Amino acid sequence: KDYEPLKSQKNRNLETALEFNRGIHPRLVFSNDDIREFRYWAGGTHRDLYERLEEAFENKENQTAALLAFGYLLTEDKSLLANAKQKLFELCDNYWMPSDLNYTFGIPALALGYDWLFKELTPRQRDELRLKIAVFTRPWYDVTVSMGNKAAWQFNHVNLRPISFGLAGMALYGDGCPYGGDETAKAWTIYSKWCVNRTIETLPKDGSYQEGLHYWSCVFEWFAKYFQVYERFTGENLYQSSEWFKITPAFRFYLTTTDWRNQASLGDCIIDEIENYPSAFCRALAAQHGPYAELAQWMADKCNSLNEVNNARNDERRMWEFLYYDPTVKAKSAN
Predict the structure, then answer these.
(1) What is the pLDDT of residues 164-216, one digit of tens each?
(2) How far apart are CA 326 and CA 276, in angstroms?
(3) Which of 7, 206, 261, 315 has an alpha carbon 20 to 30 Å from 273's alpha carbon atom?
């Protein structure tokens, strides 16, 4: 079957989109109807990426809640479902998380797991997940609101938070947010979009990122996830809101060494082998068909040809790469 991209909702404002999706699960990133399309991809245009994804499903050391939940939906393997639930409720057992980065990863994991596995959860399990999503989200929403326009939007610890409480709001709306019901979930969602807009407005026009490539990967990881959810919700493609997204593949390429094993020491960059392989993010950029789309596709292929880093974040990125990949964009090196 020929490749067909996922279809987004018709253009709606965010409040209308929240109401439209009331009672529908899954609704973050994809819908239930899309899962059949994913299976076509896995057997055809995405076969190579799917084989890498299968390896991640089987690697018990690196399994994450989102990866396992997606694996279950794709394969209907009940063992993946059981492990996904276990990972979700292990997260729930954390009565606190030791840093804002833990929250940044923990909240989306709970939001995506809750949404994607909603039909497989008991009413009591749904209640517990809603409560923990709300407990973990509320402090970071409150502190971000308190910062207002004084926030340093180009600082990764700041610009990652709104994406977390935005996903939480979109996951919980219509289901009974334990803190203030739908009005609270709506507030989280709308303020998240306002913060994302502020971040996008501060991106430089040359496609660079002031904290270097290490944090370019860290920040873009969350841009891509949020943009995917937002477009499916509202029909608006946020990649089109700034020239930065068209040019930044060149920044990625320019600051990577020719052997593709190290990155330039610029800003707050960690000098080591590229532990944050950017293949998933390059796929997302390639799918926008911008001036460096073919280069972005080539960089993703180059990253995957090395594939030396073995950790949970990179295994989960195989899932996102599968979701972002547009096979109609041909890879072309800068040579």
Answers:
(1) 999 999 999 999 999 999 999 999 999 999 999 999 999 998 999 888 887 88
(2) 21
(3) 206
Looking up tokens 């180059």 gives 302
Residue 216: in which H helix or E strand, if any? Answer: helix 212-234
The pLDDT tens digits of the residues spanning 212-239 come to 887 888 788 888 999 999 999 999 999 9
Residue matched to tokens 């057992």: 93
- Scanning the structure block, which residue is given the tokens 């989960």? 316
Query: How would you classify residue 207: left for phi > 0, otherwise alpha for psi between -120 and 50, otherwise beta?
Result: left
- The angle subtended at Cα 186 by Cα 109 and Cα 103, nearest 5°, is 30
Sign of CA dihedral 291, 295, 301, 304: negative
Handedness of CA 126, 179, 88, 304 (dihedral sign): positive
This prediction has a pTM of 0.93
CB 317 within 8 A of CB 270: no
Cis peptide before 26 (omega within 30 of 0): yes
Instruction: Say whether the peptide bond before residue 5 is cis (omega within 30 degrees of 0).
Output: no
